[in-house]
Amino acid sequence: MLVHVPPHPLIKHWLAVARSKDNPPAVFRSAVAELGRILIYEAMRDWVKTVDIPLETPVGKADATIIDPASPVKLIPIMRAGLVLLDQAASTLPMSETYHVGLERDERTLRARWYLNKMPRKFNADDRILILDPMLATGGTMETVIEEVLNRGGSESFTKVISVVAAPEALRRLSPNYPSLNVYAAMIDSELDRRGFIVPGLGDAGDRAFGTH
Fold it and tell me: Start and end of every Phosphoribosyltransferase domain (predicted)?
C-alpha cells in the first residue's frame, strides 16, 4: 500500500484550521473541503482517463486534452463527514458520479455496520474510484467499504482513499490486505485513544462539521 502525504504549505495551513477546537462548524467545513480539493487534485495526477481532441481558440486551432466524458470518476463519500470532502470535488473533477454510503461505528466493539449503500450493482474493472472519509482511525469502516467495492467488481489498483488525518493503526490494518491501494492524507497522526479517536486528530469530524454532539 502506498501512502501519500503531499508536502504542500496550503495543506499544512488548512489542516491547522481544521484542527483548532475554537473554530465553528462553518470554518471547519471550509477547511476540510479545501483539503479535499487539494488531495483529490494530487490523487488525479497521471491516473484519471483523458482523451485528446482538436478545438478552436479565439485565434486559431489547438490540440487539447480533456477528462474522458465516458469515464467519470466514481466518488464514494462515507457519511456523514465524507460529505464535507465531497464539497469541492465537483469543482476539481469535470466528470464524476457520486455514490453515498453510510456506516456507523459500534462504540463498544469499534466495528462498522451499514445503514446506507448506494453503490452501483457492478463496477467496471477499470473504473477510477475515490473513497472519501476525513478520519482514517481504526481502518474498520474503510476496510468494509473497500471490500464492498471489490465485491462489486472494482479494482484495488484503481481505488484511492482520500482522508484528512490517518492513524498508524488503520494503515497497519489495511496495508497487508491491499498492497495496490493508494491513500492520500494531509497528516499521519501518532495514535488512537481508548475511544478509537485519532490523537491529536480533529475530534469527531461529523459532529464538528454539522454542529452536533
Answer: 5-212
Tell me how long the chain is. 213
Does residue 90 surpass a pLDDT of 90? no
What's the pLDDT at 202?
96
Nearest to 154 by CA among 134, 175, 124: 124
Q: For residues 18 and 202, is the Cβ–Cβ distance under 8 A?
A: yes
**CA–CA distance, 67 with 71 (Å, rounded to integer):** 8
Mean pLDDT for the chain? 93
203 three-state secondary structure: coil
Domains, in order of start, for the chain? 2-50+68-210 (3.40.50.2020)
What does pTM read for this prediction?
Answer: 0.92
Neighbours of 122 (CB within 10 A): 10
User: What is the predicted pLDDT for the residue at 110?
Assistant: 63
Separation in Å, CA 156 to CA 96, 125, 129, 162, 168: 19, 9, 9, 14, 20
Question: Exposure pattern of 150-160 as b/e (b: 16+ CB <10 Å)?
Answer: eeeebbbebbb
Quick check: 134 and 81 in contact, CB under 8 A?
Answer: yes
